[in-house]
Design a protein that fits this description.
about 200 residues; Beta-Lactamase; alpha+beta; 6 strands
Length: about 200
């Protein structure tokens, strides 16, 4: 993951932020609310205009939008479940390479998918940083932060996004799996109340 970027020391404020975001995992099992909480916490240290989460299935090799929201505006800018191409999208490139990305400018030749062009023209997307989500060596998605300003993100920003996303989503998916397992194991009680008998 990002072998070409030297490991910077995280400041006290960024360590505090990691703790704050990790605590958010305890309070929700909903991906929409989780990405919103992460975005709101990150924006004080890593200013951005949009955040997005895409999920990926290695079995079907399908990438789908889960949520994209504007930091101070509209949520759900993409319909949940919208298919995304692996080629030509920020999430797709990060997933294919299995490493985080930092782009100071949106190059429409590298990211040539229609929705990237629409984001560039309609939303004013100009720079991005992306962290793939890897659980037990399996790619499950990617988190992307976008800015309307070129060069908005630093190497430390993308490192923080990668570290926080890795820690957060591992805990999130583990909690979700544990919750599902607990529900499946919950005993189902039949209605044992006595029923009236018919008298001939």
């Amino acid at each position: 993951m990002l072998p070409q970027i030297s490991q910077p020391e995280l400041t006290y404020e960024r360590l505090r932020l990691l703790l704050e975001i990790n605590n958010a995992v305890v309070s929700t099992l909903d991906l929409h609310e989780l990405i919103h909480t992460i975005s709101q916490a990150l924006r004080d240290v890593v200013p951005h205009d949009f955040s997005a989460l895409a999920t990926y299935s290695e079995e079907t090799q399908q990438l789908r939008a889960h949520v994209m929201e504007e930091t101070d505006g509209e949520r759900d800018l993409l319909t949940e479940g919208t298919p995304l191409p692996l080629d030509g999208t920020f999430a797709g490139v990060a997933i294919t390479r299995r490493q985080a990305l930092l782009r100071d400018k949106v190059d429409l030749e590298e990211f040539n998918a229609l929705m990237v062009r629409q984001g560039y023209e309609l939303l004013g997307l100009r720079s991005a940083c992306v962290a793939p989500l890897i659980l037990q060596d399996r790619i499950v998605g990617a988190v992307t932060l976008f800015s309307r300003t070129e060069g908005a993100f630093s190497e430390e920003d993308v490192r923080l996004l990668e570290q926080s996303s890795d820690s957060i989503f591992r805990k999130f998916w583990n909690r979700r799996a544990a919750s599902s397992a607990a529900k499946a194991a919950r005993p189902r009680f039949s209605d044992s109340r006595p029923r009236p008998c018919a008298i001939a």
